[in-house]
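Holo prediction — NAP.
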Amino acid sequence: MKAVEIKAFGGPEMLELCQRPRPILSPGQILIKVAYAGVNRPDLLQRKGNYPVPEDANDLPGLEVSGEVIKTGNAVKNWRIGDRVCALCHGGGYSEYVAVDEGHVMPVPAGFDMAQAACLPETYITVWGNLFMRGHLKKAERVLIHGGASGIGTTAIQLARQAGAEIYATAGDDARCRYVEKLGARACFNYKSEDFEKRLAAETDGEGVDVILDMVAGGYLEAHIRALRADGRLVIIAVQGGIKDTLALNNVMRKRLTITGSTLRPQSSAAKSVIIQDMQNHIWDWLETGKVKPVIQEVFALKDAAKAHTALEAGQHIGKFVLHVTDV
Ligand SMILES: NC(=O)c1ccc[n+]([C@@H]2O[C@H](COP(=O)([O-])OP(=O)(O)OC[C@H]3O[C@@H](n4cnc5c(N)ncnc54)[C@H](OP(=O)(O)O)[C@@H]3O)[C@@H](O)[C@H]2O)c1
């Protein structure tokens, strides 16, 4: 089969089209003929050598796909050959065929095309697992979502809006801030030209927010602790600002704060299945009634995966990049 591999750690030019054997199925897995594969920032980190591939994972990049089931393992109960699905992959999404655990597969939501379906798994599962299962965001609470124009951010804003939260966000330029406000944020702050903490305090009468979805971490910690209301939750999903910071611990006690976070990939197959099931139970209706949908910046051919990485790295996008692999 055709696939894109990482020749050596480095820039986008390290992504190269190659030939690999088709994956071998375990009894609890299905084989998917891939239509589209979502591109995520963790793929960039893996390419650079900053996101170690778990020992049991496929070394090819790609964490989410859409496609058609073409084979099922002996123990598979819920899927049949010909089903149109999307799935969270343990690597290997940038290829014509990928084997995935049965519990990591979802149907293509009604009304979705295959490119949109490929944007769901990694992004929506990350947001659901962190903003709602860890951050316990509830109706009428206030939330700050960094990277509001990113794949993760555009998803988090739409889900938080449906959940009835009051949303604040950040983005790196004014045009994308205005887009993020149209998507559902009450106010979006340009973190490059203004102090988001001051703006947030002004917008919330100095009260701050209940939950922060944090993809920056280092450099923002003290501001986040100040910006959280009593019983607030800080949920860290990436450390683009660095892995170290300092904080006055008495503020954590005084405001009874929770600092949590997670990375999806290293979690056990069973733990991922639990998040996927919980997400489906809560948001499927929103997807199928068009209340929430992936925002796609551009679709590239599989052979142009390097161009997709270059575009994601440039940081001028809104939403997701997707690779077209095959027509199914
Ligand atoms: N924990 C997990 O399991 C998990 C899973 C998937 C993704 N992630 C992480 O989630 C983040 C978003 O992923 P993605 O695939 O959607 O990538 P993406 O589109 O490249 O998003 C990265 C975002 O970070 C924002 N950003 C960077 N520095 C910032 C700063 N100092 N202040 C505020 N915002 C800043 C960027 O904003 P501008 O472009 O507007 O400047 C951009 O929107 C990535 O960091 C990724 O590693 C975590």
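READOUT: The first helix runs from residue 41 to 48.
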